[in-house]
Amino acid sequence: MTTPARPALQVKNVSLSFKGVKAISDLSFQVEAREICALIGPNGAGKSSLLNILNGVYVPDAGDIIFEGEHFRRMEPLEAARRGIGRGFQNNALFSGMSVIDNVITGLSRHSRLTLVEEMFRLPRARNEERRFRERAHEVLRLFGLDRHAATIVGTLPYGVQKKVELARAVVAEPRLVLLDEPLAGMNAAEKQEIATVIGRLNRDLGLTIVLIEHDIGIVLELAHHVVVLDYGRKLADGPPETIRDNPDVIAAYLGSERTEIAA
Amino acid sequence: MSEIDLRIAAPVNGSAALRAAGLAAGTILILAAPLLASEYWINAIIVPFLILSLAGLGLNLLTGYAGQLSLGAGAFMMVGAYATFSLQLRVPDLPLPLALIVSGLIAASVGLAFGIPSTRIKGFYLIVSTLAAQFFFEWLFLKFPWFYDGNSSATISLPRGLTVFGLNAETPHGRYYLTLGAVALLTLLSFNLVRSQTGRNWMAIRDMDTAAAVIGVPVTRAKLQAFAISSFILGVSGALWAFAYLGSASVQSFGLSRSYQILFIIIIGGLGTIRGAYLGAAFVSLLPLALDWLFQHLFSGHVDAGLLQNIQKGIFGLLIMWFLVKEPEGLARLLGIRLAARRRLFPSSQN
After folding, report:
1. Contacts of B198 in chain A (CB under 8 A)
2. What is the C-alpha separation between B72 and B137, in angstroms, rounded?
3. Does domain A1-84+175-264 sit in CATH 3.40.50.300?
4. Given an 8 Å threshold on Cβ–Cβ distance, is B197 in contact with A105?
5. pTM over the 0.80 mark
6. Domain with CATH 3.40.50.300 in chain A
7. Chain A neighbors of B108, CB-CB under 8 A
């Protein structure tokens, strides 16, 4: 239903403050359908807060969010999920007492159409849905190379694997837009490359629009079509990665000493 | 992450034939139990054990699976018992099993009402709301004689005794099979439910409720469903406790100490497991017997009965603390570790 002409997401003049402290000031940018948009900026720049506004965890003080042509003064978390906004968290927010596959299937909740009675008696419709959900979850687990962990309780897995489970849970319900908060944090170089490849494929093959926060500039420049730079809750720069890399403001405020690394 | 953790989480791969044989043997044993056990064991130990397991199961769905703390188990049992009494008294045409179901539904709606605060508050504060249910119903069922049909002792007992579709169930065997039927059916339904999307939604809310909402779990609906289903089961177990075990009951049969007892059952047995309710109930039912036996042998019965009771309470208290600190997942997990260790030692039994 998205036409290429219409942006998937527009953020218009959004402001957010915590007890008088401005976290985001009058921020506007837009994300085109089917693009990967990277949010970068130093810690405390308001990146995670912005994602929390986009799926309704925080209520902005002012501004509008326009998702697929519809205006929202605020989102409700459940409403955001129903409209197809997926989310991965910075510090894993997995359901630690559940198995990997159960975590992923829980991500399909918004597609469940069963009544309690159907579930209690395992009526054919319930068995059908369970089978479809399980197949879908396995499909996504395979995509992330997680099949062999399917039955493992997620809290017992190493951090890097948990990160992948979180990604799998975020995309299992086939969202239209997925918000990823540092999906590569705490991974080694090989794992980072692996996950970056999967994110790239999700975007390319499934046409998924992605907004992600990432500190690894190398990965950002490789993956993103569009970069928004935040500093102290303000937008510092907005454009394709090449222009960001050469923007003197950005270099001064954020990249600083990392410039040599980028040039290399 | 230890190797043990991984092994427990892996599905149990017993040989299918062996499991089927075990299941068949278990079923026969359970069905034939009344022929093997004495009347005393059926009336005083097995039947209450089954009913406490059922109550534990009900609370475990709410507290162990959905993570909503409740001290109102006694209240919802009470509602079930008084509803069954009223239905049997005032709607004599309704057979007992149907009366149990309707009573369960009444308890479920009461549970739903007292669960509404859970959509706004959690943890410690929610306990207060469920505690309010406990005190409110103790007051209500004593205050208005209509609830106990105005009899002088303020107790309730079934006007026509235990009759199931015309059959008299007022014998030890009758009580056993009635209880077993209800417990088996509700256990099966609960088992199905916790393996379904609703069960996963409950556990998701328990483990991390903000994330649950963000990924699309209908948090409010799932919490209220947990209260309703849990109260349904507690309601049925309360009716069974009153009429299949005690015979006649009063509000004291479902006081705050009953709520604590059910909570201890699931803490000791294992929060968030179906078998935990059974293990915990077995423990709670058998510990007094074991202690009694022990003291008989150690001191040849020279211990005062009152003292014995207090010692029991002390031991319970210590065990609860030990479980909360050392093994929050209770007996269910301790046994799981044993099984896993055995499977490691004897890999041939696993294929």
Report:
1. 114, 116, 119
2. 10
3. yes
4. yes
5. yes
6. 1-84+175-264
7. none
